[in-house]
Structures are given as structure tokens and as C-alpha cells.
Amino acid sequence: MLAASGSGQVDLVGHSQGGTLSRWYLKADGGANPADPSKNKVKKVVQLGATNHGTTMSGIETLADKLHILEAGEKPLGKAGVQQYWKSDFIKELNADGDTVPGVDYTVIGTKYDEITTPWQSTFMTAGPGATVQNIPLQEGCFVDFSAHLSMSYSPRAIGLVKRALAPSAPAAPCVPRAPAF
Asked: pTM value?
């Protein structure tokens, strides 16, 4: 994208593990320039329901741990499933030096009805030096949006919050009643 657009930076938007992988790109795959944050390849990261601090999968991962299923590795749960567990080596390494990198603006949108990223607050991050984080519960100011993990990606409110994070002059996010879609 950088080469195609001729831009020096891009904005990343990711849902679920896509949000977590945006952080991995910044921390471990060359997206950030620790010596000069103004040369980061990423300016803004917007996440929806990312597993930033791992997940218990509503207790399923904890049960799998107790039954020693996680020791069997990738076969029963898949590599991505194992990596999202709150005790995984991936999550520990991702968070080892804090949640953010300098020079990046983060917007994290979570839903109180998330059945995948659990507890739902584990999606939220804390800003480190030189970074900003805005943690937004989807239901803040709109208690009638009952979107869960998957349905938040097409919630009019979540879409409005993403647009506003990318362009602060965008219209306010609408509050539209939404039934749970599990």
C-alpha cells in the first residue's frame, strides 16, 4: 500500500485477530521505527473486538487448558486459536513491552456482548510513551446496540466510530437499535 499510494504511512483497521496482528506488525514485523517514530509505516490503528490481552473464549480456553488439550497444540484448536488464549506465548510476547508503540494513535472498540474476546474489557489497551489510545465501549452513548463479536463489524455505530477514528471530522456515529446476532 505504501508503494502503491506513494504515502509514507497507512492506517490499519482490524477486527478480532486482525486487530491483534496490527500490533504484531508494529512491534515485530517492521511497521514501527523505534529510533524515529515519525518514520513509522503506520499512523493509526483502529480495532474492533481485538484479543489484545488474550481471551478465555467464555471459559472454553480455560476448560481446554484444564483438560490439557492446549498441550496437543494446533491440531484441535488451530494455531490462531491457541495464540489467542490469554496465557499463550504469543499474547505474552505481544504485551511484554506494553500495549503501544510511540507515534501511533490507537482506537479500540469493544462490545459488552462479546462472546469471543472475553472478558470483553481485555480488548482495551493502555497508552505507552508517545502513543494515544482511545478505548470505546460500543454501547457508550448507545445502550440499544447489542452487537456481539461478529456482528459488531457491521454495526452502523461501530462503522461510524471507525470512520470518526480515521477522520475526526466525520459525522458522529449513529445509534441504531441492534438485536444480538450470535
From this structure: 0.89
